[in-house]
Amino acid sequence: MLTFQRLSFTPVFFRSKCIGEVSDLMIEHSKVTALLVKRSYHKKTVVPLSAVSIHDTYLEAQRITHAKRKEVQYLSAQLGTFLHDKEGLTLGMIRDVYFDMDTGRITAYELTEGLFTEWQKGVRKVPAKRI
């Protein structure tokens, strides 16, 4: 399992050249579909999740596309928002998201209930199927 925090700011290489670093993840239907790679001068490149190889300290892209201006959900917009279960109960604030690299399926959410609770109890990991 991978997390957004693990991939954030990780360098991405394409054809042996560093093209930027991961700035966000694109989500469609509760699945991570692509990485958003920030390049210089505010340019962004999209790397489909299926075209990514993971190495110890960097990611390698087999193909890239350019960011299109369509309605896409970005993972960073969900961080810091409250997560509710199926009954509408507030579970906590989203701190990170776990997902399967092969399928892109979100498997769990890392939640916090605030700084003091985090110090006392730590963060909680809630399975996505509970949501």
Summarize the structure in words.
The structure is a single chain. By secondary structure, this protein is mainly β. Helix content is 8%, strand content 50%. Strands 2, 3, 4, 5, 6, 7, 8 and 9 form an eight-stranded mixed sheet that branches. Strands 1, 10, 11, 12 and 13 form a five-stranded antiparallel sheet that branches. A hairpin with a 5-residue loop joins strand 4 (31-38) and strand 5. The longest helix has 7 residues, at 115-121. Residues 88-118 form the PRC-barrel domain. InterPro entries: PRC-brl_dom, PRC_barrel-like_sf. This is PRC-barrel domain-containing protein.
Identify the notable features of this structure and list them briefly.
single chain, 131 residues, mainly beta, Photosynthetic Reaction Center, Chain H, domain 2, SH3 type barrels, 50% strand, PRC-barrel domain-containing protein, PRC_barrel-like_sf, PRC-brl_dom
Any chance you could write out the topology, listing elements then pairs?
Layout: E1 2-3, H1 4-7, E2 11-14, E3 17-28, E4 31-38, E5 44-48, E6 52-54, E7 59-61, E8 65-66, E9 73-74, E10 82-84, E11 90-99, E12 106-112, H2 115-121, E13 124-127
Parallel strand pairs: 2-7
Antiparallel strand pairs: 1-11, 2-3, 3-4, 3-9, 4-5, 5-8, 6-7, 10-11, 11-12, 12-13
